[in-house]
Amino acid sequence: MPSDAADIAWTTVFLDLPAAQVAAETSFWVAVTGGRLSDRRGERYQFVTVLPRDGDAYLRIQTVTSGGPRTHLDLHSGDQRALARRAEHLGATVVARQDDLVVLRSPGGYVFCAVGWDGEHRRPAPLGRPGAASLLDQLCLDIPADGYDEEASFWSTLTGWDLGRGELAEFPWLRRPHRQPLRLLLQRLDSPAAKVTAHLDLAADDVEHEVARHVALGAEVFRRLTHWTTLVDPAGLPYCITHRRAST
Hints:
2,3-Dihydroxybiphenyl 1,2-Dioxygenase, domain 1, 16 strands, 248 residues
């Protein structure tokens, strides 16, 4: 459990989708994760949660009225206002304040929300049998090189999670507490970009098996590399299946 009311107790990733793409995208991600849908909610019934077979939910879908498909991150806290103030102090900009949340933009331009916490703490188990299991594992922040150090420092300080480094220097990550469902990967981009974006990564025991399953569900393979395969989902959002073993 968090040690302070303003600590980050849980993380949720949102797929923000135009109305024309919601049905196909929702069906795809429900099938990929093996979950089921909650009832719709909101004044326009624009929110729905993908409920896992066990554990607490950390994937939600929002119907948006402008812009293309994208992701955003919700940071859950016992005191979302204090969390938002901390984010502002570290360089975030407030986009909007609502009764139950604060919408912010990171120094590099990535939109996230400080929201309340309803006691979520159980990370769902992987889908499938050992050897062929998969799991929605991490959110990769794609950060332009020019602002990389500032953005990486912002997320590490805001979360309080230590920065870890592996064999690929361009992919540091934040060491999530054991209860957290999403790891945050901080990718340094070589190509210029206007702002920070993000994509989903799944861990898979057997990447080729998992890629074939996703293609059968409607994804398209974009690129195959040594450590991951990049695909595009039905809404056109890129995501990756990595060699991080889901069952371990």
